[in-house]
């Protein structure tokens, strides 16, 4: 059957209900005559049980909540499509990776891990990056994160990891944060977490936008081609806008100013037609080369350095449609790393193996029974038939007498398919061994890649990691745990451990030898791979009455032409009048907007005459400067940034030159100006 980019949308349309303009009814379809007063025995009397409308309305309301996800509870999603650039036939028989003219619908959910459903978006955390491909051969789910490695090597430790990072059970604090005793106690006692902790304390854990972070399948999977030849494979998503992060002070403030920062960013980008795009890449290792590396390819705490195993870019995903209803789609979507298609298979990575159990199990409690695949968002767009029946909420009406296999009454249908007909046949990996509850020795090097990560960072990135350690451990009350963690990270880098020890007031580690790992990988550093660009970035344009109309028109137009999203901030809502009578609509006031919500700030004139406005605008610009952002000013706006030290990110011109906007945009394209970091 042929599937195109609209197939899922078309399928969802059968379930969409538009009730605007309609008469209200009960769930039984009976028209309702009264929805404000319950039925009573006398105007001041008790409510009567027979008021079925009241009972139905109240009962439904009482049952509206379902358990939030045990992890990744806070998330946001969008629809889109995926296209492959070239046929991957040589490597995999997966149908959606064969034909560049084909578009496969996708649904992508981004998330934080630790926080509850109502927590803030900008917290320090790993971000989930789950993609459901609705393919002709069934749903394929790539349930990944924005960090390519994981905290643990064996799924049996997952409940321990999550118990440690979630709010502490005796007082349920802190929310959506790893900066507390139990998390760091876990780290110190489970040293396999070292590599992931380095990523978690890097800028990766405070992304600027879901649209500006990488995604990784993390595990090693298998590609299998038509000839049955298999290769190990790791999956990557690379954001077309580049990888961009917030700074920590800003991230914490955003959590208060706009806890919905990332979901708003995604929603607005799609509404405005700035469709997020991610290129899809694969790293492949031939099975014969399994043991040629200085890491075990099955170990999920290891990356495959891109310099050793290049990422082949094979396709692109575009997100172009917001959901209609967050509960129905984003909340009820059920991902599972075990949802695969022919041509994609598993490996013996012990973390992956455990995940294959956990995801269906969690949906059973979360979505209330075994029929969650029938929820509109979870339905494959290809037909599906089997002998499973009944259960809570079953919607399909399976017609006929037969619900078992094998049978003769229905000519032995639904019948399994041969491999040639598209039947999924598990890769016939040869396995032998004794039953042992142990881990392979090849999984025991916990520090080499953590050191490689550290070696690969720029000085600015290293500084951010040191600050993150100092913040996180600074929130840990137990001195003993602080000390244990510092000692542990001396195995990664002694200088790092010493610097953190000093800031924490604990002993610098003494008897640890400097790591002998000198390897680095530029691909791990987001600064070294910076993509400069201004498209979709938000600029706050600060203006007041009497701004220069002529300049404003020119500069505003240039900002828009470059693809940025300028928004006007002033002292009051409504229209501002320029010196030439030009009108400008205000989007936000200093009360409703904040410097931390923008990528750059430009002060046009009109705000210096009023002392309160001047103070507010100055604070707005100064904070942007302190967060390393581009700030600029023209006309009397230059007074507002006169105290800021000059650098390439301060674009100040009292009488703006013709190319003022270009200069501002060039500075904005840098994202942040790290020369300010002391
Ligand atoms: Fe998981 C959800 C990603 C290890 C058990 N996981 C979940 C989600 C993402 C990941 C993105 C949210 C899905 C959504 O948006 O609905 N998980 C990962 C990655 C892992 C990982 C990249 C390591 C490489 N997870 C992992 C392990 C286990 C789980 C080892 C348990 C054995 N994960 C779950 C879960 C969740 C989940 C409890 C909660 C909600 C859900 O599944 O649907 O089953």
From TrEMBL:
Residues 25-413 form the Catalase core domain. It catalyses: 2 H2O2 = O2 + 2 H2O. GO terms for cellular component: cytosol. InterPro entries: Catalase, Catalase_AS, Catalase_clade2, Catalase_clade2_helical, Catalase_core, Catalase_haem_BS, Catalase_immune_responsive, Catalase_large_C. The keyword Oxidoreductase applies. Heme binds at residues 69, 109, 158, 355, 359, 366. Residues 1-40 are annotated as: Disordered. Its EC number is 1.11.1.6. There is a cross-link at residues 336-359 (3'-histidyl-3-tyrosine (His-Tyr)). It is an enzyme of class 1 (oxidoreductase). The active site is at residues 72, 145. Residues 7-22 have a biased composition (Basic and acidic residues). Signal peptide: none annotated. The keyword Metal-binding applies. Transmembrane segments: none annotated. Decomposes hydrogen peroxide into water and oxygen; serves to protect cells from the toxic effects of hydrogen peroxide. Belongs to the catalase family. HPII subfamily. This is Catalase.
